[in-house]
Amino acid sequence: DIQMTQSPSSLSASVGDRVTITCRASQTISNYLNWYQHKPGTAPKLLIFAASNLQTGVPSRFSGSGSGTDFTLTISSLQPEDFATYYCQQTYITPPITFGQGTRLEIK
Amino acid sequence: QVQLVESGGGVAQPGRSLRLSCEASGFTFSGNAMHWVRQAPGKGLEWVAVISNDGSRQHYADSVKGRFTISRDNSRNTLYVEMSSLRAEDTAVYYCARGSGSYDYFDHWGQGSPVTVSS
After folding, report:
1. Exposure string for A37-53, b = 16+ CB within 10 A, e = fewer
2. What's the pLDDT tens digit per position in A76-87?
């Protein structure tokens, strides 16, 4: 199985900050990497698919990059509604589809 | 608009069974693979199972293989998961999700159905 490792596991930041979350795959996954935002009590939300493609309706302050084994999610200027947990997901070698352990983004 | 609505969650004793449903609307249900994903208390997201658009192929996480069965009824626009031999570690919120595109990303999710396995 492909292991997905996110860093950091948690992060404190302020509104307006630029934030980067990284995700590393245990073997190459090309660009089969997706990012999700999850808030307690709600459905997870797709942000980025295929490493760098912004899902329709997602604000442009979110961006993704990377290929192979190393990927990043960047939020260019944090907004209050961005405080949530973020997950990467690989869909290259399946089953199983695997998620990173999550990065909890908290208000400083 | 696309909607996925889960139902059937609740409390079950260890070793018993429970069936979750996910009713889909707003898209051609038979055109997409469908997934179940769960989140145990205090844990991250865990993929559980997938079924192809026509129901001919299913795959499972090792943690549920042999105990859970994913199925679908395209005439009813409904996805199911039959969970048997339930264990305490199956306690989680269960989400259905639509797989899309050649990258099979999950572009729509249900609101989640909580399952508690406890005696």
Report:
1. bbeeeebbbbbbbbbbb
2. 999 999 999 999
